[in-house]
Specification:
Elements (H helix, E strand, L loop, with lengths): L2 E4 L2 E4 L3 E7 L8 E7 L7 H8 L5 E2 L5 E2 L17 E4 L2 E4 L12 E5 L6 E3 L2 E2 L2 H9 L15 H7 L7 H5 L12 H13 L4 H13 L7 H5 L6 H10 L3
Parallel strand pairs: 3-9
Antiparallel strand pairs: 1-2, 3-4, 5-6, 7-8, 7-9, 10-11
Helix pairs in contact: 5-6, 5-8
Length: 241
């Protein structure tokens, strides 16, 4: 990639193509639309989307007037999970993915594919929380285990509920009974913090995770918080909580 130094930092000397899979509303057909990005290479993909949306009059790469790109964000610091999307074929947080690290002369961005599309890059991930509610995975009265693993508790509790682990999981299908890694970690946290619910949670865990997990561990590789899901799974399977 070529770039030149300007008063605003490193700017591209030639525009980069940015193709986005868009969809106006849940019932409409998706379509690709390409834009040209000439902003700084040190920008994140989230910053790039803001850059493309900046003007009132949005023009695509063909010179056609179009609408602002729909996407979600909140913290822009990698701690909320709102900006999860598929960037160059890899699920990631837009605020944690930087232009300088992307290979090639074009960026292709899609919404998460395991969840219903609401608009453009915005998806409905409410099923993540609905699954937890359905399984009644809540701590209730705090009754910690006799020998708690505080370090792993802290790690597992960092889950953003962003859905990236479900996006890459070969066993997860939205609306089915396998709830994925996000569920396994919450089961571990609940069982280890309320001894009276341990057996109940282990049964729920087996029904909605344990019997269908193929141990691909793609969830661990993609997790932006580096949660050791395998450790949660191992503790639940052994009853070591």
């Amino acid at each position: 990639m070529t770039a030149e130094n300007t008063a605003y930092g490193w700017m591209r000397s030639e525009p980069m193509k940015v193709s986005i899979l868009r969809q106006q509303h849940p019932g409409s057909e998706p379509y690709w639309e390409t834009f040209e990005y000439d902003g700084p290479d040190h920008n994140s993909v989230a910053g790039m989307l803001d850059y493309l949306n900046y003007h009132d009059d949005i023009i695509d790469a063909e010179g056609r007037h179009t609408t602002r790109i729909g996407w979600e964000c909140s913290c822009l610091q990698g701690v909320c999970g709102a900006c999860a999307m598929v960037i160059n074929g890899r699920p990631a947080l837009a605020c944690e993915t930087f232009i300088r690290d992307l290979k090639g002369k074009e960026i292709r961005i899609q919404p998460l594919r395991k969840f219903p599309v609401v608009h453009d890059l915005v998806t409905d991930r409410s099923s993540i929380h609905e699954n937890l509610k359905q399984a009644n995975v809540s701590i209730g009265e705090y009754q910690p285990s006799a020998d708690p693993d505080h370090a792993h508790h802290y790690t597992a509790a960092k889950c953003l509920k962003c859905g990236l682990c479900l996006e890459v999981c070969p066993n997860y299908v939205n609306g089915r009974t396998f709830f994925g890694a996000v569920f396994a970690n919450d089961c571990y946290l609940t069982a280890s913090r309320n001894r009276s619910k341990t057996e109940e949670i282990r049964t729920i865990y087996a029904d909605h995770f344990g019997k269908d997990c193929s141990k691909s561990l793609s969830c661990m590789e993609i997790c932006p918080m580096k949660i050791r899901t395998l450790a949660s799974i191992a503790r639940l399977n052994r009853g070591k909580l």
